[in-house]
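thought: fold this chain, then report.
action: predict
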Amino acid sequence: MENSSGEKLRELYSFYWEIKSSVALYETNFNKIPAELLNEIRNAFDHVARCYVLYGLDSEQPEAAKIEQHLDKSLSHLERLHLDLYKLFILENKEQVDRLVSQIETDLRGIRERPYPLPEVTRFQGWLSKESLLTFIINH
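observation:
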């Protein structure tokens, strides 16, 4: 591979190195790795393998352009993986927030049914929203 391909390959592996800890964090927190994440990883490294298997390390100029295309496609798959991962974290956290809000609302109904609700409960209800809880969970 020529020098620019080598640089792209280093960039690609560096980006993967950054992403893989997020994938591990997702797996640890939610005990699963969704198929779309695995497919993007497989697709990304399939393009890298094509560079080595189809064109070898010492490429002539015409193959160098094909290698560049495959490395670009590989990087695109890793970028999609990164975006999919963010979306999945948000969806999982939203489900947790929805469950938490539902439980809090149930608890508050029980407190409201008491003959003399506490003033703190009324103030608490004012800032309670799914959006504020989701923002809190994502930022902490």
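thought: worth noting. Helices lie at 3-30, 35-55, 61-112, 119-127, 130-139.
final: tokens above.
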